[in-house]
Fold these 4 entries.
Entry 1:
Amino acid sequence: MKFDAVLFDCDGVLVDSEPITNGVLRDMLAEQGWRLSVQECMDIFVGKAVIDERARIEAETGKPLTPEWMAEFRVRRNVALDAQVAAIDGAVAAVAAVHASVQGRIACASGADRAKVEMQLQKVGLWTFFDGRVFSGHEMPRSKPHPDVYLAAAAALGADPKRCAVVEDTVTGIAAGVAAGATVFAYAPAGQGDALIQAGAHQVFTHMDALHARLLGADRRDAS
């Protein structure tokens, strides 16, 4: 493999969590007076931290986004994820293959809070691959679309970011990977690949079964 390390996003790449999380968020926003469908909620919030949309939430609800509300959201979200979250189809096998190809130099670099990421990886059978190599944007000076979380993950693995592959599924995440200097592979199961290519993705793939072969066959951005 031409890459020294592979850095994975979590939500929407490793775990099928976005409909669950956004279902909880939609319900809590409706309780505050802002009524959305789950899809509308996903269109607004996927790829972002809820707190990053503070101004819009406060404008739509007419109420402050308090620490207490955020704490309740995380509790309700985690209960729902604990009961329902599953791995993205093919993700466990894909991660295992990539892990073997790069001698374990993989990490999970998410914009979500650490507790959520670690709980999900444990629930779906991916924790053994990422134990000790989980990085949260909440713990960085800046979260995605800034590159901080990917730069931290690469540094921890002793890898030059330009020799890393990033696996992402959102425009926000792809922007972070590109800003870090990595080669970004975009997972787009619903066929929204054009937007992801425009955001800077090197390649788009539609099923996790294809990831390992794509990584083996691709050139790095700095070598292409």
Note: The two ends are 15 Å apart (CA to CA).
Entry 2:
Amino acid sequence: MTSLQIGDLPNFFDRYILLSPDNIQLLEALDMSSPKKLFADVEKYKAIGDGIYAPNKWTLKDIVQHCIDTERIMSYRALCFARNDDTVLPSFDENVYAKNTNLENRTIESLLTEFEILRRSTIDLFGNMDITMLLRKGTANMTRISPLALGFVIAGHAKHHESIIRERYFSLA
């Protein structure tokens, strides 16, 4: 299924969904935005290290951890809705999550490995959903959204942060 089959795009999340081409299938969008493809310049990331482009901004490790956390949360939401769980799911505060990590004991390589394993799992999750499951809707963050839309959010979210890294961090290396 493609993003055109989502219907009305959910507010806020549309910015991520729109980063995938209209005609691309969900599993292809997830594969094209995989960490091994988007975040492949590990040597550049290592050269940047814990550098930040402005005060109070996240490091590259913070950004990758944020992508991992967000993908896990969006995948959980998609699983709940696909299984017809009508529990209203809360939002999450990305800054609270970012402050409560163990990144001083992690390398960029270990984070990217974790992210790649997670993406494979995410692709398997969505690959085993049928059309009915992909189009069911649930409520998260006070927004009605389908697993199909959440899949494209996951793909676009990674692309969004890869763009930020290229635009704002690469000059630090």
Note: The chain has one domain: 12-51+59-172.
Entry 3:
Amino acid sequence: MTYKNIAVWLDAKRDAPTEVGMQLALDFGAHLVGLNHFHVPRLPPYVQTYVGEDIARARIERASEEARAASAAFSENAVRRGVTGAEARTLGGDPISGLATHARYADLVVMGQPDPQAALDPADLEFPDHAILACGRPVLMVPYTGTFKTIGSHAVVAWSATREATRAVTDALPLLKRAKKVTVITGDASPSPDGHGASPGADIALYLARHGVEVTVSREAAAGLDIGALLLSRIADLDADLLVMGAYGHSRLRELVMGGVTRTILKSMTVPVLMSH
């Protein structure tokens, strides 16, 4: 398996997700699709009451211009970087539905972690959570701060012997195969006949070894720490540049319920994180 179709969610506030998507497209010889959402920001109800037709029309025209500018900038950047076959697509309607539709035809989706200080709508902060659960493809989330010259030189795999973690490892194989170092971390894992087996981490290490991936297994005791905090601490200690993990969550009566570790990582990530649900 390799990545031959990559989609990147364009972010007008930050270039890093697009730069990561373009670099991966170059590394894997992949077709790159930039997804740009036509979006007219919602106004508070008390403001909406006083907005006339002229102002409403001007807001739509401005949003259209911004969408066109974002697509043009993406295309120009692709040409400059030498990414052949790149294309920009502008989506209307619900962004989650639009992303999910186009993600079905991609091997990997790249998007940025929202900046909590820059989010104008609280829903913007939950957008990645919904996207991960809806798109059916691995999502590479890029932190809102920092620059990322390498992705996966030293990869950390958060292994919990679950369906989601298994999916994430399989989805990340193209990155893991080219990594210089891979560390599998288990947190508070106990031997069990139906989960981790007799030696936590050993079975997934053997699986990866058969794919040509050299792995070090680190069995960690959380010692009262949240597992998400433990992972972030070990990533810093190891100077890793990629985290691979399963995303745990579901929608319930219009409420998004994410697992504790997933929630911690989505909020406080320091390196790009490949998540699969």
Note: The longest strand covers residues 31-37.
Entry 4:
Amino acid sequence: MTDARGKRPESVLVVIHTESGEVLLLRRCSPQDFWQSVTGSLEWGERAQAAAEREVAEECGWTGLPIEDCRMSRRFVIQGAWRSRYHAAHSHNLEHWYSLRLPGRRPVNINPAEHLEFRWVAWQDAAELASSRTNREAILHLCAGDGPPD
């Protein structure tokens, strides 16, 4: 929720990945070439876990899944494409990392107001395709051990 304070400069990043090492990425409507995991700002007064659950429901259509708090976060400068959504006093965002590991792919019901398409891709490719540095870091941190044994 945006109010006179602008968007809250705190967000969640939920890396959704399968046991076989695939990661779900979503392509934003704007900017159109921006690929990301499920992400979104916390509403004022909202806890991070609740925001992670809300964002997965809004962006994928899924509820009641075991979203794990990775107990990791990153602070970064709010970039130009999103700067106008925040109060001028807020120059940085604090992003909390979450993981949702699934046995396999699930059907995704994207919100067409936010995303144009989705892809399930190998974690290595997802790390390259992800548009933000922190998203790439989270994928590498959470998924490097995924995949079938050699």
Note: The chain has a mean pLDDT of 89.
